[in-house]
Known about the structure:
Shape: globular
Order of helices and strands: HHHEHEHHEEHHEH
Amino acid sequence: MPFSPLRMLLLFAALILLIVIVQFGVVSIAFEKLGLSNHSAYLLLISTLAGSMINLPLFSIKSDSSTTPAIPPELSRLPFFRPMPFTGKTTIVVNVGGALVPLAFSLYLIAHYPLDPFQIAIAVGIVAAVARFISRPVPGVGIGMPMFIAPIAAALIAVILSPEERAPLAYIGGSLGVLIGADLLRLKDLKHLGAPIASIGGAGSFDGIFLTGFIAVLLA
C-alpha cells in the first residue's frame, strides 16, 4: 500500500495505546517473561511501528493474472487502504516491522537463552506447518490467515518441549514459524494473486508475525 497520512496517524495512535497498556502492566507480562525492561519494550515497540511503514523491495515476479482481482469489500472500506495499479508483475517486499524486527529479536532470544536447537527446530517446524495449512491466498492482496491459531500452537508446543524456557521458545516458534509457513512457503502462490505488491511480514507488526509471537508468549 502506498503512504497514507491516516495510516501514519493510526500507527502513532496504536503506539500511544500500547505504551499505556505496557505502563499498566498488561503487555508487560509478556515482556517480563522475555527478560525485557519497560525501556527495552518501548524501544522494541517503536522499532516495530516505525518499521511497519517500511517495505524493502527484493525482486519482482511475472504474474499469471492479467487483471487485478476484485478487492475484498472489508478491505476496500478501510480508510487507509489504497489499491495500487497492477502492471502484470508482483513486487516481493519484506516488511521491516513485521518480519525483520521479529527475526532480529528471535535471534537475540536464541543467543541469550539456553534453548535446545533441536527443540527450536521442532517448534518452528510445527508452527510453520500449521501456518502453511491455515493460510490462504487473498486475491489482489496477498496471504491471509486467522490470527490466534498459530500463537496457540506455538504456546502449546513450547510448554510441552521446554516448560522452563517456554516464553522465549513460544515467541521464536510463533514468529519464525509464521514467517516460514505463511510467507516463505507461500511465495509460489503469489504469482497467481494479481497483486502489485506482496509483503513478507504482512501489512505490519500488529496483524502479522510480531503480534503472533507476543500472543504466544502471553499464552505460554
